[in-house]
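Q: How do we represent a protein-ligand complex in a form that can be generated token by token?
A: Start from the inputs.
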Amino acid sequence: MKILLLGSGGRESAFAWKLSQSPKCEQLYIAPGNAGTGQYGTNVDLKVTDSDGIKQFAVENGINMVLVGPEEPLVKGIHDDFLADERTKHIPVIGPQAEGAQLEGSKDFSKQFMNRHNIPAATSRTFTPGTLQEGLEYLPKAGLPVVLKADGLAAGKGVLICTTLEEAQDELVQMLSHAKFGAASSKVVVERFLQGIELSVFVLTDGNSYKVLPSAKDYKRVGEGDTGLNTGGMGSVSPVPFADEKFLKKVEERVIIPTIEGLKKDNIPYKGFIFIGLMNCYGDPYMIEYNCRMGDPETESVLPRIESDLVDLLIGVAEGTLHEKELKISDKTAATVMMVAGGYPGKYLRDKVMTGMENIRDSLVFHAGTYQDEDGDIRTSGGRVIAITSLQDGMFAALQQATADASRIYYDGMYFRKDIGFDLL
Ligand code: AMP
Ligand code: GLY
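Then emit the structure tokens for the protein with adenosine monophosphate bound:
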């Protein structure tokens, strides 16, 4: 079949790598892709939010399936756009319609969903500019630290953890009255702080049945020892040693099953990935957030552990036959080190020539922010430049290999964390 993958990050490179291995994948297109995705298929110069252009491309090229990598097109309704068009309504889109994507697109929607279906989560209340005063009065009762979340998509920046009441009050005013995060903070969820250790669990669903994919842990802070500014993610590991069988059973019973059943009860169709961000609080799972897609850089560690044919699983999602498919997961450990541009996550260097890829010994290389210039050189274009993933027997070997291979790549301003996963050994 002919598959169109949307996105341009390390996640999409990992998807392209995995999809292209399938005998069922006759042709793969990636829009817009990056210098790495071009090894596995054909890059197409279209923006992920250009629904009309993407539909036109799908029609002209006989696309049989669309896989959406990032959240923005889903929240904006690309799946709905395909369904509303006579020319494209028969083409399966992997990724929910706009209503299901609200699980990520609106923190208030997702909190209401969790509460309605008894899914364990921090107690919270939602405030608007009209109820700012009530919000300010509620804050002293919420305990400290307190978490303030802009309701809408805010490029991963809309969550503030405030350690003093004054800071929380000031931020609530900034968000509600001064649009600190634009329209995204026209509603704010005020939530209790959860103490524990974070992990991500991924589910693939056809709306009826589901498969639990490998879990992963992401490292969000830019500095070693989890210090410094938040980033999109500096590395990941899978599996997560502290998410043992007993804990994952609780996740399935308390979170995954109620989520799938809840979507059905609410008549929300959902075909695609559900990213469940969890806190392990002394052995019990509590929801932090849903995302309507896979994580980046979690995907880079999750997909190499899936031994089954991903295209076949996605066909199961499209056709509602996921329960008939087998999901085989490797016992090996995958570790991903994200190499970033100098200055990231602030203003960062770009257009730097990258060398040394041929020296990688035993890792997968997933391009994220790269492009190929007229001379054929690979150059940097994004903050997160390239992900190095190693799949090995055991965590130590995977971490050591990924870190060693990352150091074989060079570009001006190159940086990566050398401590990804070492806290878990
Ligand atoms: P979110 O965008 O909801 O994933 O939040 C971003 C980050 O803020 C999460 O990855 C957590 O590290 C942190 N966070 C969010 N909600 C809470 C909470 N209730 N308690 C503690 N940390 C949280
Ligand atoms: N790595 C976190 C995310 O993809 O949202």
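The chain has twelve helices and 22 strands. The CA atoms of residues 8 and 34 lie 6 Å apart.
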